[in-house]
Design a protein that fits this description.
The complex is a heterodimer of chains A (about 240) and B (about 170).
Chain A (H helix, E strand, L loop, with lengths): L22 H5 L1 H10 L9 H8 L7 H13 L13 H16 L7 H22 L6 H13 L3 H18 L7 H5 L12 H18 L4 H8 L1 H8 L3
Helix pairs in contact in A: 4-5, 4-6, 5-6, 6-7, 7-8, 8-10, 11-12
Chain B lengths: L4 H13 L4 H17 L3 E8 L4 E8 L13 E7 L7 H13 L4 E6 L11 H13 L2 E5 L1 H8 L5 H13 L3
Parallel strand pairs in B: 3-4, 4-5
Antiparallel strand pairs in B: 1-2, 2-3
Classes of the chains: A mainly alpha (about 240), B alpha/beta (about 170).
Chain lengths: ~240, ~170
């Protein structure tokens, strides 16, 4: 795929994204406008130029092409996946960022399901790497962008769960998690007004963090739960 | 949240590796809860403790007025057993009482080793049928093979529940 030069999008792909649409257009004013209008906090793409250089993306790749390309890169890691908090951190973050840039192309209501599949697949790979490395990897971006795709699909309850998970991941990394994009999404805004208050949302994240810290990382059951915070969310749903 | 086959497979593997232990029971509860939750049809709460009974999982149809299977009702109780032995008639009767007293039509017994007795005959297998014919209480058993099918997406959870129910109702 990388060597094939340009990637062709089918004409029926999207009236907004045609064969002539460039990544610059997609990630430029159009994306800014979109996020501004919706009040959605996106993880800003930092590696757009690198992604363009690697894939020579013009026009925008189709869903299949983007997926194949990105999955190829993950598979290329083989048995030595990057570890969080290690010298290979940057490499891991770059791959996540590449995925994120491609995923932005699908973050519109009419393609919300594709966006979900896209980021679910990313999460699947990250989880696979976690298992191989036996090390918890930061999964903030896939959770967050899954949340955004659920917003696009008008599935607000699911979106809230994903933003909670993303904020939880952020909180495990930094004390400053309340100002990160995921926590921002848990505050009242144009898209979620009156569905929950920021105190409730952020309080829940803090509860999950406290619970995770009380678990530590020593036994098998603790490791599986803290590494897969969906399970923590499930445990939290107790009387 | 969505169903992640890798996470479910990892949990299932751990459940099998820890059979007969406290951790194994805890992990099986987690796996069963995860399967119900990610089926997209049910909300799940863990460890519902009443005045006279404790239920591993309380499961409610996401839209209670429109459960995925009408005959099973909008609320289900789930009991998990990750023991080295098969689950016997006495335990099934106790669980069925909890199901009845909670006003539920259906209970799901997730028992890795299954229930005692062979198909349609004595012991646990017979108790399941007797309960249904006595007052319509449905106890669906999900054993290791059924879980394996669900975890590896050969059959959906809702279909597995439906198949279990129909096997009891139509006696096959």
């Amino acid at each position: 795929l990388v060597g094939s030069g340009t990637l062709i999008a089918p004409a029926s792909y999207d009236p907004l994204v045609s064969e002539e649409t460039t990544v610059d257009e997609l990630l430029g004013p159009r994306a800014d406008e979109f996020f501004e209008q919706t009040g959605i906090a996106a993880v800003p793409p930092k590696l757009a130029q690198e992604f363009r250089d690697l894939v020579d993306v013009s026009p925008v790749p189709t869903f299949e092409q983007a997926l194949n390309y990105l999955e190829g890169r993950f598979l290329g890691w083989g048995g030595e996946p990057p570890l969080l908090m290690s010298a290979t951190d940057l490499r891991y973050l770059q791959e996540i960022e590449r995925w994120n840039i491609a995923g932005l192309a699908f973050l519109r209501s009419e393609y919300a399901n594709l966006a979900s599949i896209f980021y679910e697949r990313l999460l699947l790979h990250v989880r696979g790497l976690q298992g191989l490395a036996r090390k918890r990897l930061h999964k903030g971006t896939p959770y967050h962008m899954l949340g955004v795709s659920k917003v696009m699909a008008q599935q607000l309850s699911e979106a809230r769960d994903y933003f909670t998970l993303a904020a939880f991941e952020d909180a495990l990394l930094s004390e400053d998690w309340r100002s990160a994009p995921a926590a921002t999404m848990l505050a009242p805004s144009a898209w979620n007004l009156a569905t929950w208050s920021s105190d409730v949302g952020l309080g829940r994240v803090q509860e999950l963090v406290n619970r995770a810290r009380s678990f530590g990382n020593e036994t098998e059951r603790e490791w599986v739960v803290v590494s897969n915070p969906e399970l923590l969310l499930l445990i939290d749903r107790a009387d | 949240v969505h169903y992640d086959p890798l996470l479910a497979d990892d949990l299932f593997r751990r459940v099998r590796d820890t059979i007969g232990t406290q951790t194994g029971g805890w992990l099986l509860e987690l796996l069963a809860g995860y399967l119900f939750w990610t089926s997209g049809e049910y909300d799940v709460w863990r460890s519902t403790r009443g005045l006279d009974a404790e239920t591993d999982l309380r499961v409610r149809a996401t839209v209670p007025a429109r459960p995925p299977h009408l005959d099973l009702g909008g609320y289900l109780l789930v009991e998990c057993k990750n023991t080295l032995q098969r689950t016997g008639a006495a335990m099934i009767k106790k669980f069925a009482t909890d199901v009845r007293l909670a006003g539920c039509r259906c209970g799901v017994l997730v028992s890795l080793k299954g229930v005692t007795g062979t198909k349609r005959t004595r012991d646990g297998a017979y108790t399941v049928r007797k309960l249904y014919h006595a007052d319509g209480t449905v106890i669906i058993v999900l054993d290791e093979a059924a879980l394996d099918d669900i975890v590896h997406s050969r059959v959906s959870l809702v279909d597995a529940l439906r198949a279990g129910y129909e096997a009891i109702r139509f006696d096959f």
